[in-house]
C-alpha cells in the first residue's frame, strides 16, 4: 500500500494512461477530422442541389466547423499550458501543485 502512494500518480496510473493515450488523441485528432468531413459532405450536397442560397449556408457552416475543429485541436495544448502556468505560479512549499504535472509527464 505504501508503495502505491509513493508513485507519482498515487495509483491512478491506469486512468491517467487511458486519458492521455486514448481520450485526448480522439478529441484532438478525431473530432476535428469528423467536423471537416461532415462539413465537406454538407457542402457537396448543397453544390449538387444547385441552390445558391443553400450553397452559401453550407459554406458558412463549413467555415464555422473548420474554426471549431481548430479550437478543439488546440484545446488540449491550451489546458496543459494554463495548468503549467498555475502550477509554477503557486506556492512552492505545497507539493500538490506540481504533482499533476509530474504524474502526467511520468505516463508514457
- Major beta-sheet overview: none
The domain tally reads 1
| Contiguous uncertain segments of 5+ residues | none
Sum up the overall morphology in one term: elongated
Helix content, binned percent: over 70%
Strand content: under 5%
The structure class reads mainly alpha
**Mean pLDDT score:** 81
Radius of gyration: 21 Å
Number of beta strands: 0
| Number of DSSP helical runs | 4
Which series of helices and strands comes N to C?
A: HHHH
Can you tell me about this structure?
With 108 residues, the chain is mainly α. It has one domain (11-106). Helices cover 81% and strands 0% of the residues. It is built from four helices and no strands.
